[in-house]
Amino acid sequence: MAEFEPKIIGFLCNWCSYAGADLAGTSRMQYPPNVRIIRLMCSGSLDPLYVFRALTQGADGVLIGGCHPGDCHYIDGNYKARRRIAVIKEALHQIGLDDDRVWLRWISASEGDKFARTIKEMVEELKKKGPNPLTDKWAAI
Amino acid sequence: MAKLTVKNGNISDTLAQFFQKFLTENIVDALLVPQEIPSGENVVQTLIMNPVGLKKINPMAPVLPLNSARIVSKLTANDSGKKIAVLLRPCELRALIELVKLKRAKMDNLVVVGIDCYGTYPVIDYAGKVKNAGSGEKVTMDFISKASKFQEFDEPRTACQICRFPAPKNADIAINLIGLDVQKEIVIQAESEKGRAIFETLKLDNTTDHNEARQNTLTKLLEQRVKKGEESDEIDYINIIASTCIGCQNCRAVCPVCYCRECVFEGQIFEYSGAKYLSLAAKKDILRMPIDTLLFHLTRLSHVATTCVACGQCEAACPSKIPLGKLFYRLSKKVQDMLEYEAGRSLEEELPLSAYKEDELKSLEEPRK
Description:
The complex is a heterodimer of chains A (141) and B (369).
Chain A: E1 8-13, H1 17-26, E2 35-40, H2 48-56, E3 61-66, H3 77-95, E4 102-106, H4 112-129
Parallel strand pairs in A: 1-2, 1-3, 3-4
Chain B: E1 2-5, H1 11-24, E2 30-36, E3 43-48, H2 69-76, E4 84-88, H3 90-101, E5 110-115, H4 123-133, H5 136-148, H6 158-161, E6 173-176, E7 185-190, H7 193-201, H8 212-230, H9 237-244, H10 250-254, H11 274-283, H12 293-304, H13 313-317, H14 324-338
């Protein structure tokens, strides 16, 4: 029986986190291959539906990467993302889902190592939690 | 404040006399007031331009078939230029304030008359009780007497039993009911410049009275409701939704603050082709049809969390009686406390999702404790 490999969907902002992930790659940093990256122009353009769709369709974790507060390419997109993600996490928690599967991290373009570290940590934590409980509950989703 | 003497316990006539002056003295062009339907088994908002239409006002009846903020939005979104006096309960007024901020209603030409609210029965229960008791008045007075004695009874809607807003704020004129004997006299206070000007025109006493009896009763009522709201219950929402949600989307239809002209669920994103369904099914053992049952609820939660006034119409409209009232109450309280916002508190407060603080919500990056 193979070990459980969590599937992580990563929504990364174009200017910071995506570039940071790219830097991790070009620097040949080793990190687990569990993340599927989707590029957004800004973390502020994250629609809550993306996170909910990912979780209800079987993702074990969702990572949202944005520029550090104060450094958003579009000035304040990440501030709005922060509030929106607070609402998303609370909604997940109130309905009975584990909102610790949704991670918000500020990763800048120069932080290739932070990106690699974040993925490593996330995979470890998700392996401890186990697969998304919704995958068994086909009648709910 | 004005004290209107109630003759023969006939509250409806007393209020009708008060409101008809709004029309005869040209204070407003129209009234939106709750009146009993001829059979007495329901109380609905009515739009009146002629005092002869004031047949059986009963704003104290413990029934609320819908949150009137929607109606006021229909009347004012495209300004008719006419002045309208609207009689609203606290949850309706709070929802209206949110709709104004969402640019779905205007309050410029409104006179808002707020009224205290002890709570409401579900609509079919009210109709049944009136049928048995013979009159809406009997059911109303019986309810008020139970509620004013802080009796615990299960029949009011859950949302009402935990509502933290029994008294209206931000009204121009307020009808006081809690802690008072409404069969003897009805106390009405002006609470804004507009309200005071109207009292001048009607030659009513403009002094405000800090009524001890009412304040004490309000405090006790609030304590009772907050305690009830904090009662923990292990509701398994995911299971309940899986087993009873029929996807009718009534909850969305009746929500006063669900404000989008075209809901995302009616749009292109959710129009799947046959091929799409089949490709999803190919990846799974079983695909429940139609899909997106839980997704709908999660989306609604996140879309209204910051604006929800916890009026509970969602639960009232649900054919399966999913306990949405408590879910939205808890979510909206948590989210609004986190963002230091309260839906319906003030027209001046900016909508929290359009605003931000540079330093806040640090705990988002930590696991939940």
